[in-house]
Amino acid sequence: MATIRDVSLLAKVSTATVSRVLNGSVPVSPERREAVMAAVAQLDFRPNAFARSLATNRAHGIGVVVSEVSSGVYGGILQGIESVIEGHAMHMLVSSGHHQAAIERRAYDFLRQRRCDALILQLDGASDDEVAAFADTDVPVVVVGRSVPALPDRCIYLDNVAGGYLATRHLIERGHRAIAHVAGLAGVADARDRHTGYRQALEEAGIDYDEALVADGDFMEDAGQRATQSLLDRERAFTAVFAANDQSAAGAMRALREAGLIVPDDVSVVGYDDTLLAHYLVPSLTTVRQPLQEMGQAAAWLALARLGLDARKEVNLRFEPVLVERESVAAL
Amino acid sequence: MATIRDVSLLAKVSTATVSRVLNGSVPVSPERREAVMAAVAQLDFRPNAFARSLATNRAHGIGVVVSEVSSGVYGGILQGIESVIEGHAMHMLVSSGHHQAAIERRAYDFLRQRRCDALILQLDGASDDEVAAFADTDVPVVVVGRSVPALPDRCIYLDNVAGGYLATRHLIERGHRAIAHVAGLAGVADARDRHTGYRQALEEAGIDYDEALVADGDFMEDAGQRATQSLLDRERAFTAVFAANDQSAAGAMRALREAGLIVPDDVSVVGYDDTLLAHYLVPSLTTVRQPLQEMGQAAAWLALARLGLDARKEVNLRFEPVLVERESVAAL
DNA sequence: TTGTAAGCGTTATCAA
DNA sequence: TTGATAACGCTTACAA
After folding, report:
1. Does residue A212 contact residue A234 with C-beta atoms inside 8 Å?
2. How many CB pairs under 8 A join A and B?
3. Which of chain B's residues have a Cβ under 8 Å away from the Cβ of A50?
4. What CATH number is associated with residue B37?
5. d(C-alpha B326, C-alpha B269), whole Å
6. Can you give the pTM of this predicted structure?
7. Inside any domain, residue B330
8. How many domains are there within chain B?
9. If you average pLDDT over residues A41-50, what whole number do you get?
């Protein structure tokens, strides 16, 4: 592959001049510019990105760690990031964390060594302290999908407490008072926050919190089904279920159907995430939407801002969940 | 950030020796190795990937172009690729093609310039000739999700004709003879192939091909619904529909439901892709599965093989679709 | 406006 | 087994 030297020889100029016309940094006379362009075209010259990065100390790339590259939930974040950086001639180095701290660390180390200009991390295996440690370097780090107290100005997150509250209040407004909750994976912040929002809404409405109406899940459909099953087996009657995510909700609906109950006539169901499946379930699922693409974009903007590349005056850090009403909730 | 020079100074050895212990290429005396390791640890030294790549001409990265990073269909490919390259200390540079030739070209050029060790392309905007042109370079190129005749030994693809055949034959075996087809986007190879398979199965069963039973879609739900609507409006009765993908099938089911028809009692439906939604539709959708993760893995193996890195004796190029039976088909 | 030449941080060649 | 040192291909002072 042709080098800048080849181009300079062919165009009968110095390599410096070639570099100048390529980067448009310094004025170059029309004739030489012309000659350089011609040579570049003729040789199909493409500057070596490594040499360039070595000389400039700029990678033109941002590293991204996401829990699963192939997931309806996290894919939206990637898409958001990509949509903003592609306008800045940046690329994306992506790696999966698989929800495990050890793998997340590996991915992080890897990306660090690649000398990315910035890192965007969506981690849910690592502890807050670990995330804070990751962020404690010279390369700009942005955290997405989570709020780490030690990093107040570079976390892009959704208020999951508000989300849980929103879902529950929606049910309360429809007249429900005996509202069950299929919780997410114990120990995960998102699960905890949604549960907290659930309690807040109950409390606000003067409804006593009843542990017997809460069953543990793990964000997967099967656990959602089992949890709902166990809820049905208990003595407490309920007219609605708030599930920690859409998949759990799908499991809940399955359990209800198998118990001969009709959604929403007998029991209403609300999910969380607004993944594709919420739209396809029958009845379609009322759920809480996370604006993932927007969050990905915000993360990218924040990263670019820290690189002095995109001076967007104000980037939104905290995103609000939105209730998406479909067919799975009935008024009492 | 510390450089190899800093390490060599601290360890009182030459940079060459540092390089040697780091790469394990050449024997180094225990004492010096010890000293180097200590210095590396003390300085938290991480070799500069650019300098290394410049010197070795190896990027340790493979570029991937995929239609949409956030998609149930293509995400599986990314995951497959990642799962094999992460064992080779390689990373993934990903870019979306958005189904458009111009954007695909941009993504390709971008990745080329980044000097990736290899490229894996899943393109559906570019023509066969364009894809062949992309592959005509010194860097190894693997095409996934499509068979380009000019590149017989580096395309990882699914036999879509077989898939269309499989779906249709399944319906024929259940006693259906009046089988409608909601086609995919006109001009897209996948759509064409599935349609061909549909015709083959009919022919084999001695059923005349009837144009009035075929309606154009575009792989999206709405078009699937409209197509099925138009099918219902025609004079031809049918007892089954084979849709070019799951989303079209969802649209078809919607149209049928709105027409007061029960799936599968009145009309059976078969989809294609086995995306998450096939599982969640009610009734759940019988569909044709594409082993996307396996295809991604195969693509990565092929790329590594071309780099002399993973001498897997034989990589499977042609994948067979699998029929996944669920609840949307009834025997006549 | 242009060219010369010194980096950038590695690896690899060649002697020793 | 080790150390000098010349690449690798680009950018960027510094001079002209």
Report:
1. yes
2. 115
3. 50-51, 53-54, 59, 115
4. 1.10.260.40
5. 10
6. 0.89
7. no
8. 3
9. 94
**Residues A134, A227 within the same domain:** no
Residue B332 domain-assigned (yes or no) = no
Residue A314 predicted with pLDDT over 90: no
The answer to whether residues B256 and B229 touch, using CB atoms and an 8 Å cutoff, is no
According to DSSP, residue A159 is labeled -
Q: Looking at the structure, tell me whether residues A170 and A266 fall in a common domain.
A: yes
SS3 A324: strand
Classify A234 as helix, strand or coil. coil
User: Measuring CA to CA, which residue among A63, A146, A73 is closest to residue A111?
Assistant: A63
| Strand C closer than 7 A to residue A27 Cβ | yes
Is residue A329 in a domain?
A: no
Residue closest to D11, CA→C1'? A55
- Give the nearest chain B residue to A77 (CA atoms): B70
pLDDT at A312 over 80: no
**A285 lies in the same domain as A246:** yes
* pLDDT digit string, tens, across residues B87-131: 898 999 999 999 899 999 999 999 998 889 999 999 988 999 999
Measured CA to CA, the distance from residue A154 to residue A137 in angstroms comes to: 13
B141-CA/C11-C1' distance, Å: 27
Contact B95 A95 (CB under 8 A): no
Residue B328 lies inside a defined structural domain of this protein: no
Q: Is the pLDDT of residue B171 over 90?
A: yes
Percent of chain A with pLDDT strictly greater than 70? 99
Q: Does the nearest atom of strand C lie within 7 Å of B75's Cβ? A: no
Asked if residue A73 has pLDDT above 90, the reply is: no
- Is the separation of the CB atoms in A116 and A139 below 8 Å? yes
Interstrand relation of B91-96 and A91-96 (parallel, antiparallel or unpaired): antiparallel
Runs of H (alpha helix) within chain A = 4-11, 15-23, 30-43, 49-56, 72-85, 101-113, 128-135, 160-173, 189-204, 221-233, 246-258, 276-280, 292-306
Interface contact flag, A115 B50, Cβ < 8 Å: yes
Closest CA to B64 of B76, B52, B78: B78
